[in-house]
Amino acid sequence: MSGAALGLEIVFVFFLALFLLHRYGDFKKQHRLVIIATLLAWYLCFLIVFILPLDVSTTIYNRCKLAVNSSPAENNGSYVTLAPSKEKCFKPWSYIPNGIMPIFWRVVYWTSQFLTWILLPFMQSYARSGGFSITGKIKTALIENAIYYGTYLLIFGAFLIYVAVNPNFNLQWNQLQTIGIAAANTWGLFLLVLLLGYGLVEIPRSHWNGAKRGYLLMKTYFKAAKLMTEKADAEENLEDIMEEVRKVSESIKYNHPLRKCVDTILKKCPTEYQERMGRNMDDYEDFDERQNSYPSEKSLVKLHKQVIYSVQRHRRTQVQWQILLEQAFYLEDVAKNETSATRQFVHTFHSQEPENKIIQYFYTPTVEWYWECLLRPWFYRVLAVVLATFSVIVVWSECTFFSTKPVLSLFAVFIQLAEKTYNYIYIEMACFLTIFFLSICVYSTVFRIRVFNYYYLASHHQTDAYSLLFSGMLFCRLTPPLCLNFLGLTHMDATISHKNTQPTAYTSIMGSMRVLSFIADGFYIYYPMLVVILCIATYFSLGTRCLNLLGFQQFMGDSEMTSDLIDEGKELIRREKRKRQRQEEGENRRREWKERYGNRDDSTRNRVVHTDQKESSFSETNTNRPLSKYTRSNGRTERDRIELLQDAEPLDFNADSIIDDPLESDSGR
Predict the structure, then answer these.
(1) CB-based contact 224:648 (threshold 8 Å)
(2) d(C-alpha 490, C-alpha 331), whole Å
(3) Stretch 158-187: mean pLDDT, rounded?
(4) pLDDT tens across 525-546, in order?
(5) Separation CA 363–CA 357 (nearest Å)
(6) Locations of Basic and acidic residues compositional bias (predicted)?
(7) Which residues contact residue 302 at a Cβ distance below 8 angstroms, ignoring those fewer than 6 apart?
């Protein structure tokens, strides 16, 4: 099994990162380089989190083996270890051979740092650029990142000058490398504590509130009111941008030098706008540079950037609105089915997506009722209590992990107890659960935060390229200090434990932080204690209240603005529900009409054809009887009546069919 665990986790983490990226990104519409860069950043960060427990168990085994195979005299005081028996010091199932982990960590760490500090910022500017050529986009990206790169060079130069001026240090390459790592980890730890303090409180609270049906429904109404405002604003913005595009398209004719740029802009517009603009094109007219004033290439670049942004925002709000409607309808169904006597879950609307037959077979209406109305609230409450317990342990350990005598960090106590018995399975599970919970608290906050419309991770393939790349940057900057913080909580970092023991392979590539003693002995130890203040602020929703005072509507139960938005959202959901009910009733009437009169028409036609054949043969033999004439006429009359009824379909009013054409309105709006 040597190295097999490492290979399995490498493959598993890759598919996990690919699944998450597929949920948020759009593989078909977004640039391949954006997808590859984001996937690589997410993959490397998730990989560090999953592989680090294997590094810890391997390090503990190496310490045990070193203590057994050598005496204190031979060690010459290099390592202070216990002397376990040879029977206890057995090789773990996930043991990784020596020499593999240092190379692995070095490649993963420096690749992630190259992505977060150089490549991803450049690709962000490149993705948001409105240039029409690769050269133009690269030029724009270099100009935008000049200040960005210059700021970091200034910070690194300040650290470099500090070390060079200090007479206690002889500046060497290893120390210079350590300074760079320390600067990156300091910035990451500063942001890590902020996100961790929010996630430690918000994740258990969100699961506890998830058990409250009324709370979820009210919050959904609140989101509906806010999203409708954003949706209307996105539609209005798109119409304004499309109006500008129409004017530019009509002014720049087919033989103008900038016509290729206009065609590029038109390709980014929605299909219905492209068709309307195409109908109004008069390309037979030549442009006259002396008579008309034409937009410059710089203004077209700006317009191109606005088109990309407005189309993406409009598409995202449309998809989010449909998803929110489904959530609201489902929560209303849950509220209605809680009092059901039959104990079978009844949906108001059928799912628009085809359901899996296997899931449909096991997840019957009865099972769905017991899960949604009975078991799920209790499951969420128990899960919230477990997560809250983990949060309390993390907060306590963050405030006491610097204490080595006695050991107050609970995570360090668990690992040291397992280390005495060399229970590697327990060690790996304890390490994995600890770092996994820390990662969930930090990464979930990255997925939740929204910086206006510039950074927003929206599910169902609605995240733009800029936000995907920015999330990759955040992950690469947060993961190394997160792992160092985890090693400090478990006392596997010699800088924290103050023991001259064999370090982990991950710690060895970071170098000795003693080069910057004020960071190693001060910032890294005492700054994480601020997580207590942040947890208290999050518990009392101080950030939410501040945003509400600044005019950004937030969901607060004791706010009058929140109550008004809830009522508005409830009315919007009720209106959309009536609209969908009318649509389904119209479709059902059409289906019943076709099933009823379509079958009668087929049988009637067969009967009429058979009657005509009999009547024609009968008329040939009995020409003196006038009955055949009336029979044929009656059959033809019946056939005409049936065909007339088949052509007539019930009409159903649909408000969406009456759409004002924004491009055909007055151009001076």
Answers:
(1) no
(2) 43
(3) 74
(4) 888 899 999 999 999 999 888 8
(5) 10
(6) 582-617, 635-644
(7) 130
Q: Among all chains, which residue has been given the structure tokens 């409009």? A: 314
Of 269, 265, 263, nearest to 303 by C-alpha is 265
C-alpha distance from residue 581 to each of 348, 572, 617 (Å): 9, 14, 54
Is 90 exceeded by the pLDDT of residue 114? yes
The number of beta carbons lying within 10 Å of the beta carbon of residue 163 is 17
Angle at 138 between CA 137 and CA 143, to 5 degrees: 100
List beta partners, residue 662: none
Cα(185)–Cα(481) distance, integer angstroms: 5
CB 276 within 8 A of CB 664: yes
Minimal CA–CA distance to 274: which of 254, 252, 246?
A: 246
Write out the H or E segment, with its range, that includes residue 450.
strand 450-451
Taking the CA atoms of residue 151, residue 153, residue 158 and residue 160 in that order, the dihedral angle to the nearest 10 degrees is 170
Contact 590, 649 (CB under 8 A): yes
The Cα 306–Cα 336 span in angstroms is 45
| Whole-structure pTM value | 0.81
Give residue-wise pLDDT tens across range 66-77.
777 765 444 444
- Residue 125's alpha-carbon distances to 139, 148, 301, 466, in angstroms, are 10, 11, 14, 8
Residue-level pLDDT at 636: 47
Write the pLDDT tens digit of every residue in 623-664: 444 433 334 444 444 544 444 444 444 444 444 443 444 434
Bond into 406 cis (ω within 30): yes
**Burial category of 560 from C-beta neighbours within 10 Å (exposed 0-12, middle 13-18, buried 19 and up):** exposed
CA angle, residues 410, 203, 200, in degrees to nearest 5: 40
In angstroms, the CA 105 to CA 383 distance is 34
